[in-house]
Specification:
With 497 residues, the protein is α/β, with parallel strands linked by helices. 49% of the residues lie in helices and 15% in strands. It has 19 helices and 15 strands. A 6-stranded parallel sheet has the order 3-2-1-12-13-7, with helices on both faces. It has a 4-stranded antiparallel sheet with strand order 5-4-6-8. Strands 9-11-10 form a 3-stranded antiparallel sheet. Strand 10 and strand 11 form a beta hairpin. Helix 13 packs across helix 16 and helix 18 runs antiparallel to helix 19. The structure holds zinc ion (ZN). Zinc ion (ZN) binds next to loops.
Length: 497
């Protein structure tokens, strides 16, 4: 099965921050997990580089827009690499391959009769790059998001017949509720659509930084249609000499933050349908990670800067914390203090320490050879069906809940060590068979959990799997290996600072 997951493309007029890292890590966790299941995965991320906010920022600095985005795009690419994203392609909307394909796409939309010339008059926020409906205007004609005065715009441009898709979109989200997750976001999209869809500007005439319309090069495409198209255009040129569209379109999942729901749930599927293409299969809308101001940690102060966290604690810790602390799909508070607590109690103690001591005991009591024995029925019952449960949750992009399912068993193995007390068993030769079973159960449990945790903690689990003598990344059942392999001691996976 093909599995195509995308992040939003990041608007490259500013600096990359935790919000960008969050969407990327989510998509990457899904991509890694599906690869473990042997699916044919493609993951896309990149930067959105056109439009007025970039033109204005460049002007203010006295550089060309191209210079500005050439300077900023690598910062985003650096961030996604530091969070250990395994994306298959990094798209930039200034790529020649993208520009050509957007022009093809918009031509198809026009040929199909969904484009006409008209006069736009209304309110526009230059920071959102968005034309505002009457219902989206703050007090005193301001942008409710940016709290800046909106501009009254009047210009001749080309319109996209969005109104033609009102019924189709309503039906799409009513008949197939799973298309927009979580469900309250689907309701939000539906109520926007039911409120009445009006045609929207497809182009701008008073801006030159964008993709020129093929039939009217004095106009550039409205940046949202240009940007959204990336999910489709990338497949046309990500692999030289190969068109991946047949193989991966429609996308399995678009991952995005709640502020861009309207564009993804309304404009984008309508634009695709107008071009005669399938809308994306599903989208997951996540919330914001909110920084409280009070809670400070010793080493990180009060700002959870992804670059700094990764520098000090590694990418695994950041990937883990964001999905452990905040329910994926909801807004949630994060703090540097909370980060350090979880790092110590869950990563260093629950998981890291469990791994170190288990391996050390196999080394000490059995010369590093996992005893060959029948699986402990106690653990067998606990681990029964875990791969299926985690897979079912990740099929629904329930990244935090899947992690909780796994963590229940991490805690279970810790209790198992305390209950079975291998160090006591080791003192009495009469308990040798029981000790064999306990050591076998611990290493087998660790192996299953490391594989399940691999999408969340790619680096530390790679170390652990190597120490466990497990060369493959595909998911394994508990007791699918009966022992006999050599394991090695490891340094602490999550050293205490
Ligand atoms: Zn705005």
């Amino acid at each position: 099965m093909s599995y195509y997951v995308t992040t939003p493309i990041y608007y490259s007029n500013g600096e990359p921050h935790l919000g960008h890292a969050y969407s990327t890590m989510a998509a990457d966790i899904l991509a890694r997990h599906m690869r473990q299941r042997g699916e044919d995965v493609f993951m896309l991320t990149g930067t959105d580089e056109h439009g007025e906010p970039i033109a204005l920022a460049a002007e203010a600095e006295g550089v060309s827009p191209q210079e500005l985005v050439d300077r900023n795009a690598p910062k985003f690419e650096d961030l996604v690499e530091r969070v250990d994203s395994t994306h298959d392609f990094f798209i930039r909307t200034t790529d020649k391959g993208h520009v050509e394909r957007v022009q093809e796409l918009v031509t198809r939309v026009r040929d199909n009769g969904y484009v006409y010339q008209g006069t736009y008059e209304g309110w526009y926020c230059p920071r959102c790059a968005d034309f505002k409906n009457e219902s989206e205007i703050g007090p005193g004609d301001t942008c409710p998001i940016h709290e800046i005065p909106l501009l009254r715009e009047k210009e001749e441009n080309w319109f996209f017949r969005l109104s033609a898709f009102q019924e189709k979109l309503e039906k799409l989200y009513e008949d197939e509720p799973g298309r927009i997750m979580p469900d309250f976001r689907r309701n939000e999209a539906l109520s926007f659509i039911r409120g009445g869809l009006r045609d929207v500007s497809l182009s701008r005439s008073q801006l030159s930084w964008g993709v020129p319309l093929p039939w009217d090069p004095d106009q550039v495409m409205y940046v949202w249609f240009d940007a959204l198209s990336n999910y489709y255009t990338a497949l046309g040129y990500a692999r030289e000499g190969e068109d991946l569209s047949e193989r991966y379109w429609p996308a399995s999942w678009h991952i995005l933050a709640k502020d861009i729901l309207k564009f993804h749930a309304v404009y984008w599927p309508a634009f695709l349908m107008a071009a005669g293409l399938e809308p994306p299969q599903r989208m997951f809308i996540h919330g914001y990670l909110l920084m409280g101001e009070k809670k400070m940690s010793k080493s990180l102060g009060n700002v959870l800067d992804p670059f700094e966290v990764i520098e000090k604690f590694g990418a695994d810790a950041l990937r883990f914390y964001c999905f452990r602390e905040v329910s994926f799909g909801q807004d949630g508070s994060i703090s540097t203090e909370g980060f350090e607590k979880r790092y110590e109690s869950e990563l260093a103690n629950d998981f890291g320490n469990l791994a170190s001591r288990s391996l050390a005991m196999v080394d000490r009591y059995r010369d590093g050879l996992v005893p060959e024995t029948d699986a402990d029925p106690l653990l067998l019952a606990d681990f029964d069906g875990i791969n299926e449960r985690v897979s079912a949750l990740l099929d629904e992009a329930q990244i935090g809940q899947a992690l909780e399912e796994i963590w229940v068993l991490v805690r279970r193995l810790n209790r198992y060590v305390e209950e079975s007390q291998p160090w006591v068993l080791a003192k009495d030769e009469g308990d040798a068979a029981r000790l064999d079973q306990v050591l076998n159960g611990l290493t087998e449990g660790l192996r299953v959990l490391s594989l399940l945790l691999h999408p969340y903690l790619p680096n530390s689990t790679a170390t652990l799997l190597a120490a466990l003598g497990e060369p493959e990344l595909s998911l394994r059942e508990f007791a699918s290996r009966s022992g006999g392999q050599k394991v090695e001691r490891i340094e602490p996976l999550f050293p205490k600072l």
